[in-house]
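#dry-run=false #mode=assembly
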Amino acid sequence: MTADNDGGRWQVGRAHRKIDAAERMRGVARYTDDIHLPRMLHARILRSPHAHARILGIDASAALAVPGVHAVITGRDMPVPYGILPWTRDENALAVDEALYVGDGVACVAAETEDLAIDALDRIAVRYEPLPALFDPEEALASEMQINPHAKKGNLSKHVHLEFGDVDAELSGSHLVIEGDYFFEGTTHAAIEPHCAVANVEANGVLTLWSATQVPHYVHRELATVLEIPEHRIRVIQPPLGGAFGGKSEPFDLEFCVAKLALMTGRPVKLLYTREEVFYSHRGRHPMRMRYRTGFTKDGNLTALDAATVLDGGAYSSFGLATTYYSGQLVCSPYAFTAFRFDSRRAYTNKPACGPKRGHGSVQPRFAVEVQLDKAAVALGMDPIELRRRNALPAGGTTINGFRIGSTGFVECLDRLEEASGWTARRPRLPWGRGLGVAGSTYISGTNYPIYPNEMPQAAVQVTLDRSGRARVFSGASDIGQGSNTMLAVIVSEELGLPLEDIRVLSADTDLCPVDLGAYSSRITLMVGNACIEAARKLRRMVAETVAAEWDAPADRIAFAERRLFDRAEPGRSVTCAEAFRLAEAAHGLLAATGSYNTPKDRHGSYRGGTIGASPAYSFTAHVAEVRVDGETGDVHIVKIWVAHDCGRALSRRLVEAQMEGSTYMGAAEALLERHAVDPAHGGVHAGPSLLDYRIPTSLDAPEIESIIVEAPDERGPYGAKEAGEGPLHSSIPAIANAIYDALGVRLDALPFTPERILLALAQRRQAEGAGLIAPHKGVALSGRPA
Amino acid sequence: MSDRPAKLLRLTVNGAPVQVAAAPHHTLLEVLRYDLDLIGTKQGCDKGDCGACTVQLDGRPVLSCLTLAAQADGRDVRTVEGLTGREPHPLEDAMDRWNAAQCGFCTPGVLMSAEALLREATGPVTREDAARALAGNLCRCTGYTKILDAVVDAAGGGSPTRDGSDP
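#status=ok
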C-alpha cells in the first residue's frame, strides 16, 4: 500500500489524469451540438436591430409559406416571465411587447435545415416603433423612461446601502485618506463552445432538453415555469460542456425556444448560437464605476473603507441582485478594518444584460481596493507586500460585515510570492519601464444560501458499488471543464481504494442524478465534495465491517488502497475490492449510499442582506506581476505573473494549478485587452462581437505564469479543501495595474490598460513633472523622453 | 442558398476513401460534423477566428470553417479522429498528463496544429515554436500554460522547471 505522509491519504493531493479528458481530446465525447437526432429540425432566432423598440406586430406568414419551414414562435407563445432569481422575474423567453437591446430575441423559426431557418428569418416581418435608448447607467437612473416593463423601481434594478462602524469618524481621524475613481469596463466569458440546445419529446412523453448549461437544475425549474409543464415531465441533460465561466449559468432564449418548438412540431429541434449571438446574449461582468475612500494610520493600518458604486446592468436583472450585494460584501476580506460603508446601485440600460462572470461581482471592486492599497503604500513609503501582511485578517477572524473566516493562508501567499518573484532584491533595481506589482484577494467556496430559498441540502451525491468492483457516482454537479467529475472520482477513490478508472461519474442529468445547484460561485469542491465523502464513507463502513468480521479484526484496522483492502496490523492480509464488495453485498444488500451537504447558517451577519456573500470557507490569493512597458507606444508586456493561492487542500494538484493559471490568464486578458461594450453612436450595436475584434489572447499574448499552491486546510472543506476556480482571477488585474505604476509612475484607474490610456497617463505625468508638481519616477525625467 | 443542388465529392478522410454529397456552399466543417459525424472537429466561431475547427488538408493545418467542402474534393483530410491508433498519440498522452485539456473543446484543433508542428520540426521544439504554431487556436480555459508544456514535452523537449510526470 502506498500512502503519503498526510494522514495516510493515498489519492488526495496527487496529480491525476482527468477521468474524461481522453474522450474529449480524441473527439468522441458528444457535446450538445454533436447530437444529431433523426428528423431533427433546426431553429434560429430573429433578433431586434433596435436598442429599444415597441413591437407593433409580427407577420410570419411569408416564412411559414416556405416548404420546409415548420413553425414560428414569438414572445406571445411563451408569455410567462422568468428570472434566475425569484425576486426579479423580469425576462420573457422572447420579447413580448418591447425589445430592450440590440439582439433581444423577437421570434424563432424551426425548419428542416439550418439554411432554410436562416432564409426564413428574412421573411418574418416585424413592425417596430423605435423608442429612445439609454446606454449610460447614471442617465438611466435619472431618466423618467422605464426600460424594463417588469421593473419595480424605474431603472433602478437594485440598491444596496450598508454601513458598519462609524466610517466618517474613522476617515476623519485617519492619518491618510486615499480617494480614487475607478472604472471597470465590462468583459464577457467567451467560452469557445457557443451555447447550444436540443429538445425532443421522448416516447414516454417527457420533454428532454440537452443544453450547454452549467446549471441544469435552474434550467429545469424555469422551463417548467415558462412552458407551464410540471417539472417531472421535463428532463434536462448537460452533455460535456465546452467552457462556461459563468456565461451559461441561467436559462437563455434558445432553451425555451427549442423546447416550445419540439412540443409544437413533435420533432427534435436544435439551436446553436452564432458567435455573434453569444456576445449579445452575454450575462458577463458588469461595468462598474467605483468611488473609493480608504483610510490608514501612519503605520499603514487600514481604518475604514467607503465605497460608492454604480453598476451597469443592461436590459435584464439576471443575477444582478446578488452582483449588487457582492460589489460591497466581498471586499471585507482579506484585510481587517474597523468601519465600512458601501452604496451600490445597479441600473437597467438598453444593452445586453450583465450577470456573473468568474469572480462574480467582486473582481471589479477588488481592482479598486488593491490599487487604493498600492497608492497608500507609496504615500506612506511602505513596501506594498508588508502593508498587506500588516492588515491581514487572522484565521478564525470575523470581517467588519460579519462574515466568519475559517482558515487563511493569505500571509503565506504573500511570503511565498515575495520569495519566488525576488521581490525585495529585484524591485528596487528594475529600470524605468519595468515594474513589479502585488495585489491580494479572497473568494467564496459557494454561498451559504441558495438562490431560491429552501431548507433542503445544497448538494447531494449517490454512490453505488457493484459486484465487479466498481463504483458509480451520481451527482447533479456540472463539470464545465474545471474537472469536478474527476474531483468526485478522487474522493471515492480515496475512501474506497479504487483507482480512478474503476469509478464512473454520471452527472448533470435531472432524471438520473440528485438535485445540484450547478457550477457557480465556486461551490462544487466544498459542497458536492462533502456530500460525496459522506456517501463514500457510509459504503466504506459497510464494506470494512464485513471484511473485518471475516478476518475477525476490528473494522478500523481495515485500509483501502490500490483496488484492495488491507489489514493494517497484518500487511500480508488483503482482499480485492471486488471480492470485498461481493461479501458486503451479500451481508447488506445492494451497496448504495447517499450523502448530502447543507451549509452552516451561523457564519454571517444578522442584518438584512447579511447572508449574501457569506460562505462556509474562503480561499485566498495573491499575485505578483512583472511588466515591461514601452513608453513610446504604450504597449504593456507582461513578463511573468506569480500566483499563490490558498485552496485549503489541493485534492488534485495539477487541476488546482490549471484553475490558477486559467484564472490568472483571464484576469490578465481583462487587464490589457478585453472590452465588452456597445456603441451608442451606432444605436447600441456591439463594439466587436467576434473573438478577433473582442480580442481574447492567443498563445502569443498569454503571460508566463508560475503557480504556487498554498494549503491552509479549513475544517469545513472536504479534507480541508476550499475553492480554486475563481479566486485566482481577482488580484491578477490590480497586480498588473500596480506593476505598471512601478514601471512608469502612472496610475491606470480605468480598464482595460490600452496603449492609448498609458500614453495619456504619461502625457499627464510629463505635464505634472514639468510644472514641478512631482519628481521624476525612478530618476528618469519624462521631459527628456520623446512625447 | 438552401436550394442549390448537392454535388458528389470524393475525399480521403483519415486514410479511408469517402464519398459525400454536399451543397456547393457547405464548408468542410459542416460536412465533417453533420454529414460524416466526425464530431471531434468543433465549431467555435464559424468565421476563422478560433481554430477549433482545425483539420489537416494534405498534411497542413487549415480552418475547416473557411474551407468549402468542394475545395477538399480529391484531397486528403485528417481529423482528430485520425490521430489516435490503438494507443493514444504521444501528444494526446502529454496533454492528458499535463491536464492541458480543461473543457476539451479547443483541444482537437490544438492537436491538429501541434501534430503538424512536431511532424515538420527539424530540430528541438521550443515553447516559442509551440506558441507560434498554436497562435491560431484559441483556448479560454488554460491560459495556454499547460498546452505549451505538453507540446514541448511530447516533442521530447522536456520541461525542466515544471513537473509533468505521469500521475
